[in-house]
Structure prediction request, 141 residues.
Amino acid sequence: MNSQTRQSREREVSSWQEFEELAREILEAHGFKTAFRVVFRDEYGRSEIDVVAERYGLILAIDAKCYTHTWYRASVLRREAKKHVQRCKRYEKVSGKSVVPVILSLIDDGIVSHEGCIVVPFQAFNDFLLNVEAYIDELLS
Prediction:
């Protein structure tokens, strides 16, 4: 991606709230039923998942990260992935439902997995949703 395209995308999404809302809209366009900014409590306290999306029995727990090239480190994304996996385990315990932890990132590092969390760059989100079962099989098996 060239710098003009990157700057244009960063201007289109001017806040993390807009990025979360855009993620929800895309999920709904792909036939997912969504719950937005899901707050839950357990013995560790209060926590939130940006978007919980369900389709055909598959539940994705999306944590939208609006990092830009001026504020981004791979180590930060890895740390956030680890935290999101723990948050999802807590949510599973409270809700009784199994979820797939996903971080949606504005930065393109390719689709990867870190400690059980799939990290999807925004520009690959549509492809990920079209082929979600294949990505889960490949990255989490």
Q: What stands out?
A: The beta strands are 33-42, 45-55, 58-65, 100-105, 112-114, 117-121. The radius of gyration is 14 Å. The mean pLDDT is 87. Residues 74-95 form the longest helix (22 residues).
